[in-house]
């Protein structure tokens, strides 16, 4: 529930829900007959529809079909609100997932956020926060066996106000990827679809922030195809820094690009936030 009360621009907890379709601090209450007659002018159809969704969620939970918090919204016509001169939120304008059950999880929520990060920093100050739990998950793809093939995926995260990146999750190998001991080729459609899903479910907060892949080397070094590939990604996303993780058998390396040059980041500290 508290994930619904995180202010998306600052990450600070507020009184207005980030799920609202109408901007906060507006006078939406009607008062027809004086004291005790104040109400919010929703019609019976709107409140019945909302009650049905709430009941459906409750039944789903009781039947054990819902195991994590979900949000369901439905977007009606804005004509009535506009006639009243009410301002609608950016969420209303961009919302396209009516009646879909989506995870009720806000990446900036201080309660749900991972508590332990590995922090990587480049010489010119670019920072990447990788939650310990995600690093452990990446390490399960290490090519420790002589026959194990390369794994790869896309990094999903968000840019905080200082332009630093916090990794939220990553896409994992698909059956349709092509993988050998020393090469991989992503099924880009399948991976991209997960990015888009995360983007919509997070109200445009989460997106593509880089890639990861494994190397059959103890200490991984990027190959020249890696560097060429990263430069292409950088050129396609020139407005923001991207990060590239290479998981070796013993260590993990993180890179970024600065003006086409591949820069390795170093671990600055183990943070306990
Ligand atoms: Zn939360
Ligand atoms: Zn590589």
Automatic annotation (TrEMBL):
Residues 224-235 have a biased composition (Basic and acidic residues). This is JAB domain-containing protein. GO terms for molecular function: metal ion binding; metallopeptidase activity. InterPro entries: JAB_dom_prok. It comes from Photobacterium frigidiphilum. The keyword Cell cycle does not apply. Residues 144-248 form the JAB domain. The keyword Transport does not apply. GO terms for biological process: proteolysis. Residues 213-235 are annotated as: Disordered. Keywords: Hydrolase, Metal-binding, Metalloprotease, Protease, Zinc. It holds the Pfam family Prok-JAB. It comes from the Bacteria.
